[in-house]
Amino acid sequence: MYKHASPQRSDEAVQGLAVASSKTSASFVAVSVTIWFIMAQMCQGQLRAQLGTTPNIKHIVVGRCYTYVTIVNPSLSYDCEEIWRQFEEAVVHQSSCNVSVEDYYQMFNVMPQIWPCNRFLFWSKTRTLMHSYAAVFRHFWTLEDTLVGYMFNDLIWCGQDEDSGFDFSSCPNWSACRNHPVYSLWRQASQNFAETACGNITVLLNGSIVNAFNRKSMFGSVELDNLNPQRVDYVNIKVVTDLKGPHIESCSHGSIVDLIQILQSRGFRWTCTDNDQTLMILQCIQDPKQSSCQTCANSLQHRTSLSSD
């Protein structure tokens, strides 16, 4: 546990500064260095705490599992304690950069899950809007709605080389190693989610960035490759741009064209929509003062008046 400077010590530092103004410059420098050192230690402790394994991770994961099978989807029956044991076994006996997808096989074997067709929603760089969209159209299911996604969403974890427990001080970034324990779990979860996809599926992409379809993203590198054209009827792409712009990519421009070509080459049927009205309305709810929101409102009002005539 990292300790912050106590209030008493901070008061002493302030008093030291006051005295230093009447003493030699050397004393002033000494006090300044002391304060800098204290602040550096405080910031360092906060940084390490953010990078380490999420505190109380076992209670969070097991608690989420019980919530899921009791409230979210009570039709399912899983052994939450066994899932945790398999997860712990995969992580704590490995170094922080040596946990592969294979290490999680046993955990996934004790928590199989299949969803009905026509409910799969994929996304890339549209997380906030995706959750709003899924909340409105409640028949959609995302990876975060699966048991594994619900249990591990927004958590960090890694083991230690010299110990059999979790490292709560520091974990490497995803980019530091291919076999990162967090990346490997989400990679396998994404693969399973894509393999079970069937019927009409939806993909939300961000048209306000370059490479809205990125081959290095989880959708581009894992999920797309594991979609089965024999199981998927249509891939419905929805490209959404920020209300304030910029408008960089669309169904006919940029990396989205590359995605469509890949789908065609693999025998998928597809549709692509720019600026879906529902997605625009969801953005306008969050930022109604945008000029494009007024245009959308006028259009809806005009349609309503026409239908009532």
Describe this structure in words.
There is one protein chain. The chain has 309 residues and is α/β, with parallel strands linked by helices. The chain is 49% helix and 9% strand. The chain is built from twelve helices and four strands; from the N terminus they run αααααβαααβαβαβαα. Strands 1-2-3-4 form a four-stranded parallel β-sheet, sandwiched between helices. Helix 9 (218-223) links the parallel strand 2 (199-206) and strand 3 (232-240). The longest helix is centred in the N-terminal third of the chain and has 27 residues, at 25-51. It is globular, with a radius of gyration of 25 Å.
Provide a concise account of the structure shown:
The chain is an alpha/beta fold and about 300 residues long.
Rounded radius of gyration (Å): 25 Å
Average pLDDT figure: 83
Number of helices: 12
Shape: globular
The largest sheet has its strands arranged as 1-2-3-4
N-to-C SSE string, H for helix and E for strand: HHHHHEHHHEHEHEHH
Class derived from helix and strand content: alpha/beta
- Regions with little confidence, pLDDT below 50 for 5+ residues: 1-50
Strand tally: 4
| Biggest β-sheet description | 4 strands, parallel
The proportion of residues in beta strands is: 5-15%
Amino-to-carboxy terminus distance = 70 Å
Helix content: 40-55%
List the topology elements.
Elements: H1 7-20, H2 25-51, H3 57-72, H4 80-92, H5 105-109, E1 121-124, H6 127-136, H7 147-152, H8 181-195, E2 199-206, H9 218-223, E3 232-240, H10 255-265, E4 269-274, H11 277-286, H12 291-308
EC number: 3.2.2.6
GO cellular component, one term: plasma membrane
Keywords: Disulfide bond, Hydrolase, NAD, Transferase
